[in-house]
Write a structure and sequence with these properties.
Length: 269
């Protein structure tokens, strides 16, 4: 069964283009499920029933919230759907298990005052060596709405700063590519950063002091630190807050919802 999970994780990572964090979450959920099955002496994938899945989920519900419960069910559904599609199984035991509806929360985003305060904090507190880079990172988040995985995946070839063509090309969920136009503020900070960017072997746009591409965890903690130092206090404020800020600014400026959807790379409106 572990071999099948490995094959599935490779599929969603390489062929579907899921982010490393998502793949890691799927792996965690499925390994928990396998642990449960082994505890009840279910070692063959063909022997897993709808009742087994429901018992596992019932057990999870005792210690997990609604979001974690829904994620585990989603992981299991995707896994069995993959097995049926690849003729490992003929029947999907998870097919008719309903996913619980989760309450929709109002997205957290920065006000104009908080937006400026965050950028000012970077200018005042950043290590001089990283000032241009960190300013460019946060301004790119705020000015394009890219996901964390999309930002760290940017390369020098992803950026076009030619007059009248200013844009970045990102590869999002499902390995889908989209072009995002850049406003003047983003163009200016990227130009300044690139002017002083060291000549290193890596083609990644944003690099560490060692000349390597930044990883998602480093950028995540970087953003959290600047937000904390700026004194911005919101529920679960972080990288995704900057993405929501971009979407909110477009909405407030009267942009078409379909355009916002396309720029953010959302599958549904």
């Amino acid at each position: 069964m572990s071999n099948l999970i490995t094959q599935f994780l490779h599929y969603i990572s390489v062929e579907r283009g899921f982010s490393p964090r998502t793949v890691e979450a799927y792996a965690y959920d499925l390994n928990k499920f396998v642990g449960f099955l082994e505890a009840v002496n279910k070692t063959l994938i063909e022997s897993v029933s709808r009742d087994d899945i429901r018992k596992f989920l019932s057990q999870c519900a005792q210690t997990n919230g609604a979001v974690a419960y829904a994620r585990k069910l989603s992981s299991i559904k995707s896994f069995f759907k993959y097995l049926v599609r690849n003729d490992v199984l003929k029947i999907n035991p998870a097919a008719d298990i309903e996913t619980p509806k989760l309450p929709q929360k109002e997205p957290s985003y920065l006000t104009q005052e908080e937006y400026q305060k965050l950028l000012l904090t970077v200018r005042q507190t950043a290590d001089p060596y990283y000032l241009a880079r960190d300013t460019a990172i946060i301004t790119t988040f705020l000015g394009t709405g890219v996901r964390l995985s999309e930002l760290v995946g940017l390369t020098l070839n992803s950026v076009n700063l030619q007059p009248s063509q200013e844009s970045i090309r990102v590869r999002g969920k499902g390995n889908k590519e989209r072009i995002i136009p850049l406003n003047e503020e983003v163009v200016v900070v990227l130009q300044k950063y690139l002017k002083g960017r060291p000549e290193v072997e890596t083609n990644h746009l944003f690099i560490s002091r060692l000349g390597n591409g930044l990883c998602g965890g480093s950028v995540y903690h970087l953003i959290k630190r600047y937000i904390r130092e700026a004194g911005i206090k919101k529920e679960k404020v972080g990288v995704h807050t900057l993405r929501h800020t971009f979407g909110a600014s477009l909405l407030n400026s009267g942009a078409n919802l379909v355009v916002i959807q396309e720029l953010l790379g959302h599958r549904n409106l």
